[in-house]
Design brief:
- The complex is a heterodimer.
- Chain A is α/β, with parallel strands linked by helices.
- In chain A, about 25% of the residues lie in helices and about 30% in strands.
- In chain A, helix 2 packs across helix 7.
- Chain A is globular.
- In chain A, about 40% of the residues are buried.
- The N terminus of chain A is likely disordered.
- By secondary structure, chain B is of the alpha/beta class.
- Chain B has one domain.
- Helices cover about 30% and strands about 20% of the residues of chain B.
- Chain B contains twelve helices and 18 strands.
- In chain B, the strands form four sheets. In chain B, strands 2, 5, 6, 7, 10, 11, 12, 15, 16, 17 and 18 form an eleven-stranded mixed sheet that branches.
- In chain B, helix 7 packs across helix 8 and helix 8 crosses helix 12.
- The termini of chain B are far apart.
- Classes of the chains: A alpha/beta, B alpha/beta.
- Chains A and B meet through helix 9, strand 15 and strand 19 of A and strand 8 of B.
Chain lengths: ~300, ~375
């Protein structure tokens, strides 16, 4: 991908403030903006790369959740695991969709990373107080080595377009069960989750967390391509092609993690991590285990990526 | 059977020490081999020395008497080991080259924590053996709890006070050994590992365990086993949730993992103060009581078996339900406020059977008839 196309793949900041706010944008290192069409020329004149987008354009985009964790005292859960609001399942379900985030303070950087990880066409409406952190994240994303690979998956989910299936997909992704969304059962996978079948009755979708756990146990943890230890607020996206592998790690927990252990099925040589806020860092304590490879990402802010070179 | 007998039987049934319906599969991963004589149960299985002194604590001020505690410790260790002097007794367990961890318990702050007096006397005796302060580590899992208790002013310079995590927030993992853990899927949680502290696997050669006499909402009582197990591993709160506890098998299993099992060579149960309800916390004095005793052993199971009775007897004395009570009528799941105000409220079905389970793992003696208790009055 060319640098320009790569830049265009980043989520776009929607900015309605006037041209007088240009210094704060420049200070944050943000040059590409989505702006009301009537202001585009002025922003271009000020040295920015504006993308005109009207209120009408925004209104037809799918609204996303603000990513993060929250307490859900109203909802029973099978585990002590935190409630994670994440949008990855929506991007997997509709990769060609157009999305918009309307974000409270403190969520802009994570939202930008989330959209980037799934290659989503997303516009970010943010609290201006987050300009600096968003700028840092966008700069980090733009400097990552290009490495666009297809998803690795352990199972298929047959998308019937329904809301219940969406929630099941959400819970599967949140549990780091790597899914491929398909239109019909795929012979490529031993597990095809199709609601309304004998194995996955529609009524089970009423308890999506329980259904996700059922799928996890059907698969077996030892068969999973990705396991994450040390946090229940990190969602991974594993991409792989041929001998190249990239693991995206999104940390929804709102605080930096010190030492995240990753288990990948298969054999991998020494890799490298790029962590927002820390730059390039070496992976630590890599060990070959019975059924895979484990390593520690020493530090993880909102987002990090692990690149694993080809096995020689 | 007549109706009255049947009703009596029904009423009694919940008090039976029932087994959890299904034990989870627990997988131990460690590369460490056991010592020739593992520290638990050590050289004195089934043996407990209980030293009591009315003068050990001023119940009005909650303050312990340093001189009395020192004498209690000397008498207790000598009785346990058969040594004539305290230094000789300590030499049975430690050599100058040892790097010693002292596992304290700070969870019952402010009223029931490992006493300064017992901890400082332990450090003093270790140093008297020739162990330099740089080789002595006071440890807990959470730094914020250690900060609250603040042992530093009571300890010689050079002793390290260290925790694995800044607080109980699941963000700091570097203090844990990624290669030494117990794996279990208990409630469908994603993070299925509990890792042992690096301090234990990579630095310490011996450990002194100093728990307290405390009630516990999930285990019935928390003593030697739970202090050393849940205090040396990560991600353990996941074992009890929504009224159900997997502590029955998890506590003993963690304690049995090498090198923790081999390196924990001495149990000093701080029973100067205790908490009979609301544990492991002691945020008010409402449930604090004063056993005024210190128990010494190498066998954590034997002490904990006695502990179950101490807690249960104290609860009975206050008219509270037994720690063995499993009846749903007293269960208010997750209602911590109700539990704190009413000693007849459980928030989890307790599993005091964890002590017996630990015995099955070879960690010590849980049969009271086979536990030899020597009582000393100071």
């Amino acid at each position: 991908m060319s640098p320009l196309l790569w830049l265009a793949a980043l989520p776009c900041l929607y900015w309605t403030q006037g041209i007088e706010s240009a210094p704060s944008l420049k200070a944050a290192g943000i040059e590409r903006l989505c702006v009301p069409p009537e202001r585009a020329e002025a922003w271009r004149g000020a040295g920015f790369s504006p993308v005109p987008i009207s209120e009408g354009d925004l209104a037809v985009r799918d609204a996303l959740l603000a990513p993060g964790i929250k307490a859900r005292a109203d909802r029973a859960s099978a585990t002590r695991s935190p409630w994670v609001d994440a949008n990855g399942w929506r991007f997997l379900r509709n990769p060609a969709g157009q999305y918009v985030y309307d974000l409270p303070t403190g969520r802009a950087a994570l939202a930008a990373a989330e959209a980037y990880v799934y290659g989503a066409d997303a516009v970010l409406k943010i609290d201006p107080a987050d300009l600096e952190s968003l700028g840092r994240m966008l700069r980090f994303l733009s400097q990552l080595p290009a490495n666009e690979l297809p998803d690795a998956a352990d199972l298929a989910v047959v998308d019937d377009g329904s809301a219940p299936l969406g929630e099941v997909l959400n819970l599967l992704v949140r549990r780091n069960l790597l899914v491929k969304v398909v239109k019909a059962p795929s012979a490529e996978f031993g597990i095809n989750v199709k609601l309304g079948t004998k194995e996955y009755p529609l009524k089970e979708a009423g308890e999506p967390s329980a259904l996700a756990l059922k799928v996890r146990r059907q698969l077996g943890d030892e068969q999973r391509a990705l396991r994450i230890f040390g946090s229940e607020a990190v969602i991974g996206r594993l991409t792989h092609h041929g001998s190249r592998t990239r693991l995206h790690l999104l940390n929804y927990g709102g605080r930096d993690l010190d030492g995240l252990r990753v288990h990948l099925r298969g054999t991998f040589p020494e890799g490298v991590a790029y962590v927002e806020g820390a730059g390039r860092v070496g992976l630590q304590e890599r060990t070959a285990v019975e059924d895979g490879t484990e390593f520690t990402v020493p530090r993880l802010g909102a987002y990090g990526v692990v690149d694993l070179p080809p096995v020689k | 059977m007549d109706r009255r007998s049947f009703v009596r039987l029904l009423a009694a049934a919940p008090l039976a020490p029932a087994l959890p319906e299904a034990l989870p599969k627990l997988r131990i991963v460690t590369s460490y081999k056991p010592a020739a004589v593992p520290g638990m149960p050590g050289p004195y299985p089934g043996r407990v020395v209980a030293v009591q002194s009315e003068k050990s604590v001023d119940t009005a001020s909650n303050a312990a008497n340093d001189d009395v505690v020192r004498e209690m410790m000397a008498r207790g260790l000598c009785a346990l080991t058969g040594a004539k002097t305290a230094p000789e007794a300590w030499r049975r367990f430690f050599v100058p080259a040892d790097v010693v961890g002292i596992k304290v318990n700070c969870g019952g702050h402010p009223y029931v924590v490992s006493s300064y007096e017992i901890v400082t006397e332990t450090v003093r005796q270790l140093m008297a053996l020739g162990i330099p302060p740089a080789q002595i580590f006071l440890y807990e899992r959470f730094q914020n709890q250690l900060d609250e208790v603040n042992y530093a002013p009571h300890l010689p310079e050079g002793v390290t006070i260290v925790a694995a995590e800044t607080a109980n927030r699941r963000a700091d993992n570097r203090g844990y050994d990624p290669a030494t853990y117990v794996e279990a899927d208990l409630f469908g949680e994603e993070d299925t590992r509990s890792n042992m502290m690096r301090l234990v696997t990579q630095k310490l050669t011996k450990i002194v365990n100093i728990p307290n006499v405390k009630d516990h909402g999930a285990t019935g009582a928390t003593g030697c086993l739970k202090n050393i197990a849940y205090g040396s591993f990560s991600n353990v709160a996941r074992t009890h949730y929504r009224g159900k506890s997997h502590t029955y098998s998890f506590v003993g299993t963690l304690a049995s993992v090498e090198p923790l099992r081999s390196r924990t060579v001495l149990q000093i149960m701080d029973g100067l103060r205790g908490v009979w309800h609301g544990g492991p916390f002691a945020r008010t004095r409402k449930y604090v009581f004063y056993p005024k005793q210190i128990m010494f052993a190498t066998d954590p199971v034997a002490i904990d078996r006695l502990l179950l009775d101490i807690i249960d007897d104290e609860r009975k004395a206050h008219g509270a339900i037994s720690i063995y009570d499993r009846s749903p009528q007293y269960l208010k799941v997750d209602d911590g406020a109700a539990r704190d105000t009413d000693p007849n409220v459980n928030i989890i079905i307790r599993e005091p059977g964890h002590v017996e389970y630990a015995a099955k793992l070879g960690l010590g003696e849980a049969d009271k008839a086979r536990i030899k208790v020597q009582t000393i009055d100071v």
